[in-house]
Amino acid sequence: MLKNYFETATGTGVLSTADATGRVNAALYGKPHLVEDDTVAFIMADRLSRSNLESNPSACYLFRETGVGYRGKRLYLTKTGEESDEKAIAALRRRTRHDDHDEQESTSRLVYFRVDKVLPLVGGEQES
Prior knowledge:
By secondary structure, this protein is an alpha+beta fold. Helix content is 21%, strand content 44%.
């Protein structure tokens, strides 16, 4: 279900995390990489979002589709692991970097999440 959706949908994604004290952060992120039916992954630089996940494994990913009003999905996530295998990260990367981000690329991690709940962008009824 999610795989088909994210393969065809275009739009903007935001990943929200919070630290151990509840201080919230939101950052623009591309579409998640679908690993299994209930597992997604994001390529994350060593910045605030990833740092927050060290003390609080919960996150929410909001995706709003382009040009169709308020259609999209909210994924409620729990971090399950991460890896720093550069080949695995390069294989999943959807676009190449055009500017000089050598330091960011060397600190990128592939961070895995269990999908706990999927909701539409607007409304509260859980999708099956």
